[in-house]
Amino acid sequence: MSKVVEKFLKYVQYDTTAEENSHSFPSSLNQMVLAHHLAKELKEMGIREVEVDENGYLMASLPSNTAKSIPSIGFIAHLDTSPDMPGGGVKPKVIQSYEEEEIMLNENILLSPKDFPELKEYVGQTLITTDGTTLLGADDKAGIAEIMTAVEYLLENPEIKHGTIKIAFTPDEEIGRGADKFDVQKFGADFAYTVDGGKLGELEYENFNAARAKISIQGQNIHPGYAKNKMKNALLIALELANLFPAQEIPATTEGYEGFYHLHNFTGNVESCTLDYLIRDFDSTSFQQRKEFVTGCIEKLNAKYGKGTLTLELNDSYYNMKEKFRGSEHIIDTASQAMQELGIRPLIQPIRGGTDGARLSFMGLPTPNLFTGGHNFHGRYEFIPAESMEKAVQVILKIISLYAGK
């Protein structure tokens, strides 16, 4: 078993599910537990500058081993996993020499190339899957394992020249808090890469502009037998609101550069209910128009049902980082060159989501996103080819080598 796979299978045993309703930082205790475990590993490798702060951020530094002037490069991954699926009790399955067959995750769940045709790209390779009851955690424990393996390789091969390498593992990326307490100045990198992408070859430096709309509806509950002209059913108002949104502008019907509205959560009863919408768009003008549309829907229904029936909390989450690479295109070009020299076709495409790198780029640390190799993140059908993880390690090392040779 390769070192990166060995590390990955160890890290997924830590349940680091982010807890969206938690007010602590990090949101779940085991993120801190994993951070301290990784710090111990780094120290045992021989890295002296390692720290886990009170918020769960691990930062470490591998000093330059050359007198050349080389930029300080950061590599970043996140500790937490998505709350969309259980992340505890992960029991990975390792399928050697995959042969395009259906994979029985458990007696009720199949991972089939009929449903996931991308499986056919990995015939003959080693696949790591779930057992169908949890997510796998490749988002982003694969990124952690790949960074750790690359750093260990540099330490074991000191003849490889490199500049200062900065490492950071962050909490709560999955719930949008990953960069909240990230100290860019303390980190000390000139630029960085998040290792948090999907399939082999992905290289991303564009992402959604993102906002979240929390809409609360206050109804008026009356005994249904005596409710005429009195009842105000919050659930029906919520359905009326949902029907105002464009039916074809949802995640299931959009791709590429198309934005959407996503009803993320809906809870309540006749008396009161809450809807959470995620708003996404690549274009800043369209993004603003989407937010204005939501505000207009609230105003329209308040005019119908009475002022204050619906209340809106609308907050921006992150912005498209593309503009932050003007003048720093070498960061992307070098990653692309690294992949090409390793025989990997760069897949430069927009991120239909966000990473810590998006916010960090706006905080002064340009940070595009590299692939981890994983597929179907956040669910029971998640899988990752071992060979893609090994390639990710090679890309990290090649980027470091290319900058050392400039």
Give a description of the structure.
With 406 residues, the protein is α+β, with helices and mostly antiparallel strands. It folds into two domains: 3-206 and 320-405, 3-Layer(aba) Sandwich (Aminopeptidase); 213-318, 2-Layer Sandwich (Alpha-Beta Plaits). It is built from nine helices and 17 strands. It has helices spanning 3-11, 29-45, 138-156, 184-187, 234-242, 284-305, 330-341, 356-362, 386-405; strands at 49-52, 58-62, 73-78, 93-95, 103-104, 110-111, 127-129, 165-170, 191-197, 202-204, 209-218, 260-268, 272-281, 310-318, 347-348, 369-371, 383-385. The strands form four sheets. It has an eight-stranded mixed β-sheet with strand order 1-2-8-3-9-16-10-15, covered by helices on one side. It has a four-stranded antiparallel β-sheet with strand order 12-13-11-14. Strand 5 and strand 6 (110-111) form a beta hairpin. Helix 1 (3-11) packs across helix 3, helix 3 (138-156) packs across helix 9 (386-405) and helix 7 (330-341) crosses helix 9. The radius of gyration is 23 Å and the shape is globular. It starts with a helix and ends with a helix. The mean pLDDT is 96.
